[in-house]
Amino acid sequence: MFENSKKHGLLIFTFLLLVSTIFLFYQDFKNSHRKLTFAMLDIGQGDALFIESPTGTQILIDSGPPRKILSQLARVMFPFDRYIDGIIITNPDQDHIGGFEDVLKVYKVGGVFESGTINDSKTYQNFKQEIKNKNIPNILAKRGMRLHLGGGAMIDILFPDRDVSLWNTNDGSIVAKLSYGNTSVMLTGDSTSVTEKIILENSKRNPKINLTSDILKVGHHGSRTSSSNDFVKAVAPKYALISDGKDNKYGHPHPDVLNTLSSFGAQIFRTDLSGTIIMKSDGKDKTFSFQN
Q: What residues make up the domain containing 238?
């Protein structure tokens, strides 16, 4: 009888422990939805950004190279969540789209946004075919589009402002601004100084275009083809986030870019040094955390 009571007590204890764990996990999940989450995922040499609005809308911007993205998404998404509201492809190069084939095998996707630049690679062609097979809406991003994510969070498309189908993929990258309350993030893809110049000219002609952002996702992994002095000055970031692979063969980020960012007082975070970088904001205050 004593043994039966012991087993019964152990079962009750295990059950209560499971319930309390689920409750605490749910509370953490519920509280996280009251804030904006922006994560620069550590996928090596490439780009992959995850955004979740205060109401739970989820956007994945790029996916890095193949076989990297799923383990990183598991760190920032609810374990049983298998839906991503939107995918934004800033450009169709391998280091930005290589992981999307894996994403589409696991997650249902609400829509795909592209810049309009073209890549003849098999990876890109397979991805386009899979979008078609799954009947996922495929939308051309254009300046002036505003994506309302819920809870006051939004993404404004700043570029392309024209047909870029024949452009270099980097020059034609999508550039956008994420905003939530007093928190804003300039999202630059692999955009170059050519792209930056066009955006600066547009902002001069249209005072409604406000480039100032407290966080800059540094263009092209910190390559010196991006982050021109004039553009960084206009954005005036407090924080600069760089997605780059450890000991990458390209020498990213370039010392000139680091000097430019530092000269404007930006605090620099890098995935090769810090791992995945997660920012959470209630629209006023923001906190950063890191996952290696």
A: 36-291
